[in-house]
Amino acid sequence: MYSHASESLIKQAREIQESELLKFYSRLAKLFQVKELSHETLDSLQRLHLILSANKFTRKLPSDLQQRLLLLLSSPAEQLQVLSSAVLRETLPSSGEELNSIQENISQLNTHTASLLISQAGSKAELSSLCARLVHGLEGRPSEGTARSLMFTLPALKSIVTLSPECLTEEHVTILSQRIIDWLRYASIVQGGGASSGGFFTGPRSRQPLPTAELDGSVSGDFFTVLCVGQGFTEDQWMNVYSFSMLRRWLLTYHSGSSSTVDAANRLQLSLSHSYDDRSEVDGSVVSMVSATSSSSRLLPPKERLREKAFQYCQRLIEQCDRKAQKKADTELQKACMAEAVCILDCVCIEEPSLVFRAFPSIKALFGRLSSDLSFARVLLPVAQFYLNHGELAAVDCESVWKLVFGRFPAELFSDPFLSHELLRFLRLNLENLQLRVPEFIRFFPNLLKFLAWDSTAAVEDFVDLLPSLVTEGTAVEMLHTLLDLPCLSATLVLQLRSMSLPISEPSSRGLMSLDAFRNPAFRGLFLFLLRVESGSGHTIDRLSTLHDLLAEAANWPRVVRCAQAVPLLLHIYFNTVVTVADEKLLAHLVLVMLERSSLLINIPSFHKDVHRVFSSHLLKLCKLRPSLVVDQSHELLEFAGTTANVYSKEEVYTHVVWVLGEYLSASSDSRCSVTLITSCFETLEAVLFEITSSAPPPGTLCPAPKVITTLMSALAKLASRSHDLIPRVSLFFSKLRTVARSGLVPWCTDEDDLIAIVTRGEELWSLLKAPGVAQSVLTPPPHIITPRWHRDTNLALPLQLRVLTRLTHSQ
């Protein structure tokens, strides 16, 4: 948090007395009376800001001091602008007259004044009034005094549009749209800032302004854009840049869908054309093929005209990006402008589908030029968005786009955090559209999961939303294996990057054994499977133990541990989804996978426990949903339950498997359940229970948990209640258990309280089995007892009593 000195200052600011504060106000007001403000004034302003911001109650400054601070907003020193604006934002809103004076004097507007006006607008009405004044300042042709303020007016309007779009009326939207058109299309093409061609005879009279240049150094031959460069820029060129920066939001906010006031907008557009269009045609730049429709576009309504000019501007930007920039920074600027231009074209084409056919040639050429260079990956994502939205209308083949986006990008750029975020965001925003138009994207799920394996902390939230759409009947089994192998994939991605950056170690040198294994051709197939791009390319279930041995040293790598921590959450989402898409055959297969993979996990102890806990929870849910699974997979379940080692290594899963066998292996759950099957299950569980209660646990293992023993005892009692011939056998075991416990020699249970609980449970079950009819009703209750519907049964006593009481109260 804060240092001791900082906390002391904050405490002093909070505890300042009102009398001291008034003296401080008066001293500060005197400092403002001096023509040249000193460092003492700056320090006092900083202290005032600390006092106001540290207090939870908003204060009101004296009127003379507040007036002085308002005047400082137009100070030539930016430090004073920042401090005065920060202080005023911490006070109660200024009076209406003071704010109106600032709003009326638009020539004084700067970034800090604009932010203050927006922050102190107390209602939407005040914000609308501010919008009206700002837009009114844009209506006339700017003079030299107000030209600079326009550079701050547009960002202020953009902030208002972001916060409260409804503050602008249709008239304001039309006016500002017309201004954006002029700034975009008709900005000056000569350099600002007094740039000249130079020369020995150059003087004030002979100095001629230079034209703007392209990024490759050639003279700009068309209208000005954000990619034109020069030694200086004019005000309208800066407005061109600002207009382009807010164009996409403007189109999405005010130019999407039909307008109810088109006629009024058309009349206003005609009136504006007299003041702007004539000047635009005279002062415009050299006409190119992109802008050949300039004259005819003037006859369009404002919204259509802005779309047309935005379309021309973006086409020109894409054309400029073909040029080779002379500076590296300009290359990055080209990438950003390409991405924004394609996004704007996408917005325009969504509103005006007829433009799709004009836009696609340039988009297709752009994709063909950039697709081989992965440094343009973030530019190609907007291109993919354009193909997704308009590829069907234009009847173009998009397969190469999806192979690049879902194939090469995750496979080669999984470590790029920006691409990871943008690609996963692309998937989330377009999930329904992708499922409808590009259903084959699901087969790339092993590739997409590389983002999660590399940076699980950043990507897990995205996959919480994406995972349900990736689970289908065809991908369910492979998806489960892939999620369980996610920590292995994380380690493999680390090894892949290290193998490219580290030299091959000599046999005598110390290096990573896992890295040597990654480079070893004998194990190459294992790692290539983990790094596969598409699903359905085989599995390595037979060699998973080998893979886990090779990656043993990776179990402690932070990236792998974080990835393992994200898997249980995704497994819960997976199982909750798979029950909605899988049939009984697939669910039976998944039960087998859970039993098999419970021992085939990377050696991270906490990971084993978490996965076993998830398996146990969802095994119960699956069997409760489909009780017939227990009979269908009885052989595999009995084989798992009959392995004594599972009691010690997979306690959680083993306990729930035993409970499932005892609960659902009955004729009431499945008519196929025979006495032979019940007896076989009984004998298997009896053998395990006898083994673990007659000897000490194996060396290196703990005693079996009491929960495992009591679950085995309950399962045996349930099975015996369904086949009465088994009751003497289980009763004999319970009696022996009580005898052994009383003798005090119990190597399989070291805790006395646990032993008492186990013996008590045995005596309870033994007592129940003495009355077989009662035991069966208690241990295997009929369905109408398990799922009561008392609230619907009109013959029960409680509803009858409630009705009687209701009648008695109503009669009174």
Automatic annotation (TrEMBL):
Q: Where is the AP-5 complex subunit zeta-1 N-terminal TPR domain?
A: 1-292
Q: Where is the AP-5 complex subunit zeta-1 C-terminal TPR domain?
A: 462-808
Spell out the coiled coil positions from the record.
none
Tell me which domain of life the UniProt entry assigns to the organism this sequence originates from.
Eukaryota
Instruction: List residues of the AP-5 complex subunit zeta-1 ARM repeats domain.
Output: 333-450
Question: Which is a Gene Ontology cellular component entry for this protein?
Answer: AP-5 adaptor complex
What is the recorded name of this protein? Adaptor related protein complex 5 subunit zeta 1
